[in-house]
Amino acid sequence: MAATIPIKIYEILEAKLGKEDAKEVINALEEVTKSLAKESKFEIKDELKDELLTKGEFHAELKAQRAEFLGELNATRSEFHCELKALRAEFRMYFIILVCLIILLNPRAIDLIAKFLGVIK
Q: How many structural domains does the chain have?
C-alpha cells in the first residue's frame, strides 16, 4: 500500500524549497510512512496472535466444556433414575391400596375371591 502525499502539499513544498528539494522531502515522507505502515502491520499482527486462540487451545477448551457437560448430564440422569424409582414404588403402593379398598368395599368382590380360593362353593 503506497502512501501518497496530496498535490497541494507538494506544490507548497516546491514553492518554498524548490523542485529538487521538494521531491527529496516527498520521497523521505513516503519512505517514513511506508516503514510506519509496515511496523504497525507487524505490531497488530503480533497483538492478534497473542489474543487469538490456537487450534490446540480451542480443542482443549472444547474438551473441558464437553467433560463438564457430560458430568452434569450424568448427575442429572442419576437424579432422574432415583426419582423414577421412588415414583414407581409410590404408584405400586397406591395400586395395592386401591385394590384393597375395592375388595373391602365391594361385597361381590369378596364373594368372587372366596370362590377362587375355594372357601365358598
A: 1
Instruction: Give the whole-number percent of the chain exceeding pLDDT 70.
Output: 95
Let me know if residue 103 belongs to a domain.
no
What distance in Å separates the CA atoms of residue 26 and residue 21, rounded to the nearest whole number? 9
Q: How far is residue 18's CA from residue 10's CA, in Å, rounded to a whole number?
A: 10
Q: How many residues does the chain have?
A: 121
Spatial contact of 26 and 5, defined as CB atoms under 8 Å apart? yes
- Is 81's pLDDT higher than 50? yes
The boundaries of the domain holding residue 20 are 1-52
Q: What is the pTM of this model?
A: 0.43
In contact, 50 and 34? CB cutoff 8 Å: no
Contact 30, 1 (CB under 8 A): no
In angstroms, the CA 82 to CA 88 distance is 10
CA angle, corner 119, sides to 116 and 120, nearest 5?
85
In the numeric block, which cell numbers belong to residue 20?
529538487
Assess if residue 66 is contained within a domain: no
